[in-house]
Automatic annotation (TrEMBL):
Keywords: DNA-binding, Transcription, Transcription regulation. The keyword Transcription applies. Residues 191-289 form the HTH araC/xylS-type domain. The keyword Transcription regulation applies. PROSITE patterns: HTH_ARAC_FAMILY_1, HTH_ARAC_FAMILY_2. Pfam families: HTH_18. It comes from the Bacteria. This is Helix-turn-helix transcriptional regulator. InterPro entries: Homeodomain-like_sf, HTH-like, HTH_AraC, HTH_AraC-typ_CS, Tscrpt_reg_AraC-type_HTH.
Length: 293
């Protein structure tokens, strides 16, 4: 089976629960255990090189490289791990709410206000690799290991939260690395579209103006944006306008009709219907949640 079927995914609404953390060093040639586990594994090599086989795919994890091993996958090794290899490991359970239908797309940074489905997405961790961020991991993992051995209230929860933060930063480092490599390629389309939409969030949407701004055919833009972000251009534009509405509710004395007019909605009742569709309640009710002077 191909390794991509064994990527480890986390969700935005549940943090991984750490089972245990440890560190190992081998003086002689080492062979990884042959096993099938009921939890996920994070390995990080600080010195030497470890060999692991997962479901027939062989990995060599070098210095300052990580590897995630998937729960339920068969992994083992040959006597190919170098003498003197040192590594950290974290065993954890990825907690998924089976009642939730998770999206495979993270909300875009420009759409960072709370929506009803804001946390209902999953994201795959980079299976194997390294980055500049990995240079910080030896010290962080050592501190985690030291904290793991201490008795404190809510100790395991605090450790799990720290591991979750570390995983999120590791993933962000990988996304940044990929973005630098692909600068100027197809995935920058989403950024250009969001740049235009952000500048024009207080106006009705114009597909022609967007096409002229990006200098691309709108049909191509629309299909590419949907593929990259999981939502349509119109959906993104609407959410930006609703985000702007919330900002105006928080920071100005404008009423619903005035906010509607400010955002280019000629009919405040239509604005209210759109707002309720996005947030699940009308703007007048939403405004009542804020503390205002």
């Amino acid at each position: 089976m191909h390794a991509k079927d064994f990527s480890v995914s986390l969700t935005a609404d549940r943090f991984p629960l750490v089972r245990d953390i440890g560190a190992n060093h081998t003086e002689g040639t080492y062979t990884h255990h042959d096993r099938v586990l009921d939890f996920d594994v994070f390995l990080f090599v600080t010195k030497g090189r470890m060999q692991v086989i997962e479901e027939g795919t062989e990995y060599f994890v070098g210095e300052m490289e990580h590897l995630f091993l998937k729960k339920g996958g068969h992994h083992w090794g040959l006597p190919l791990t170098l003498p003197g290899t040192t590594w950290y490991w974290v065993h954890f359970n990825s907690v998924v709410d089976e009642r939730v239908s998770y999206s495979d797309y993270c909300p875009m940074p420009e759409l960072d206000y709370y929506f009803p489905d804001q946390y209902q997405y999953r994201f795959a961790m980079p299976k194997h690799g390294t980055s500049a961020f990995h240079l910080t991991l030896p010290n962080r993992l050592q501190r985690l290991l030291e904290d793991y051995g201490k008795q404190k209230d809510n100790g395991m929860t605090l450790i799990s939260l720290q591991v979750y933060q570390l995983f999120l930063e590791l993933r962000q480092a990988e996304l940044s690395r990929i973005a630098k490599k692909t600068a100027g390629k197809t995935d920058t389309v989403a950024g250009r579209v969001m740049e235009y939409l952000t500048k024009h969030m207080e106006e009705d949407f114009s597909s022609k103006q967007l096409s002229d701004f990006v200098n691309m055919n709108y049909s191509y833009l629309s299909a590419t944006f949907k593929k990259l972000t999981g939502q349509s251009i119109i959906e993104a534009h609407t959410k930006l306008r609703m985000n702007r509405a919330i900002h105006l509710m928080r920071s100005t004395p404008l009423n619903v009709s005035e906010i509607s007019e400010r955002l280019g909605y000629r009919n405040p009742f239509y604005f209210s219907r759109v707002f309720k569709k996005v947030f699940g309640e009308p703007p007048s009710t939403y405004m009542s949640h804020f503390y205002k002077p």
